[in-house]
Amino acid sequence: MLLNPSVFPKESNCLVKKYLSQKIYKALKPVKTDSGFTLAQAIHSGIKNQDSSIGIYAGDAQSYDTFSPLFDPVIHEYHGFSKNINHKSNIGQISLPILDPEGKYIKSTRIRVARNLKGFSFPCHITLSRRRELEKKIMACLTLLKNNLKGKYYSFNHVSEKELERLKKENLIFEKGDRFQDAAGINSDFPKCRGVFHSFDKQFVVWVNEEDHLRIISLEKTSDISSVFNRLAKALPILKQNLDFAWNNTYGYLASCPTNIGTSMRAGVHIQLKKFEQNKDLLHNLAQAYHLQIRGTCGEKTKIRHAVFDISNRQRLGISESEIIQNLHAGLLSIITAEKNL
Ligand code: ARG
User: Fold this and answer.
1) Same-domain pairing of 131 and 192
2) For residue 95, which of 73, 177, 250, 328 sits 20 to 30 Å off, Cα-Cα?
3) Which residues does residue 217 pair with via DSSP β-bridges, in sequence order?
4) Ligand 1 pocket, Cβ-based, cut-off 6 angstroms
C-alpha cells in the first residue's frame, strides 16, 4: 500500500501511517463530521509523536463512521479482526476463586471502563462550555450512587492546593495528559472542568473529562477480581440509566482512542514477579497466549520497578466483559503457577 510521505515522519511505525494510503488521504482530507472534526485533527498526535503505536483519536462518535476507511483497518489490526464484528456487552455479577489469597504476588486489582456521552464531542474536540455542561451532568448523576458507592466529587476547579497535593500523593487524581493526549487536544483548558469522584471507601472512582468523558474505575488492594468487577457491575447500570452513552453495534462503546472501544474495559493487576523479572521473554510469551498486555509499574509506557508488572487484558472488542475477566483470571493463574515453578 502506498504511504503518504508528506504526512508522517519516516521514523513513524504507527498503524495509521500503515493504513493511510494516498487514496484514503485524498478522500478524507476535505471531510468533516457534523461537529467539524477533521482528519488533520484526528491524526495530529500520530504525526507529532513519531513513537505512536496507533496515532489516531476520534473527536466525536461520528468520527468512527466519517473516517471509517482509516479507522476500520486500524481497529481490525489492533483488535485482531478481519471480518465483521458484532459487539455485545455482558456485565453481570461473577464469582471466581481468589487468585492469591496471601497477596504474595498480586498487590492490587483495578478495572476501568471508558464512557462518552452521546451528543457531546469527545475530549480532544470539545469546547470549555460543553465540558462544563458535561461535568455538571455527570456530577448530578454521581449523587445518585448509594451505599458503598456513595462518595464525593472533587472538582479540579475548586479543590484547594492542599487537598490537591493530598489527592496526588494518594494517587487519587489524574494528571494532565501525556504528550500523545496533548497533541490530540485532550489537555485543552486543563484543569478546568475536570474532576474525580471517590466513594468514601476509595474503591470506586470516576474520572471526569480525562481522555474520555468518564473513566469508571473499581479498585482494591486485593487479588479478588470478582469483588472488584462486581462493584463496577453494580455501578454501571445506575450510571447508564441516567446518562446516554455513545455506542454503535459494530464497535460497542465508543472511546477517544480506537484501542479502547468495545467493552472499553481494562482489567488488570499489579503483580510482583521476581523470577519472571529475570526472564521477561517467557512472561511476554505467556501473556500473549492469554491475550494479556504488560505495562510498566506506573502505567502506560513506563518502566518496571521492584519487579511489579501491570498485567491486563489486551482484547476489548468482540468479547464480553465477563469473558475478559475469565481470561484474565485464567492467564494470571497460569502466570502465578509458572512464577512458583521457575
Ligand atoms: N496515541 C498513543 C499511541 O498511538 C496511545 C495509544 C493507546 N493509549 C491510550 N491511552 N489511548 O501510541
Assistant:
1) yes
2) 250
3) 112, 205
4) 14, 45, 52-55, 180, 211, 257, 259-260, 300
- State in Å: Cα 55 to ligand 1 middle: 7
Which tens digits make up the pLDDT trace of 185-217? 999 999 999 999 999 999 999 999 999 999 999
The domain of 19 spans 5-79
How many C-beta neighbours within 10 Å does residue 308 have?
19
Contact at 8 Å (CB) between 35 and 59? yes
121: cell is 464531542
Q: Is residue 94 part of a domain?
A: no
For the domain that residue 232 is a member of, what is the CATH number? 3.30.590.10
Reading the block at residue 250, the C-alpha cell is 459494530
For 244-296, the pLDDT digits (tens) are 999 999 999 999 999 999 999 999 999 999 999 999 999 999 999 999 999 99
Asked whether the beta carbons of 123 and 278 are under 8 A apart, the reply is no
Q: Cell 458535561, residue? A: 134
Give how many domains the chain has, as a whole number: 2
Cα(239) to centroid(ligand 1), Å: 26
How many angstroms is it from 121 CA to the middle of ligand 1? 19
CATH of the domain at 32: 1.10.135.10
* Residue nearest (by alpha carbon) to ligand 1 atom 6: 54
Task: Write the pLDDT tens digit of every residue in 113-152.
Answer: 999 999 999 999 999 999 999 999 999 999 999 999 999 9
Active site residues: 112, 211, 215, 257, 259, 266, 295, 300
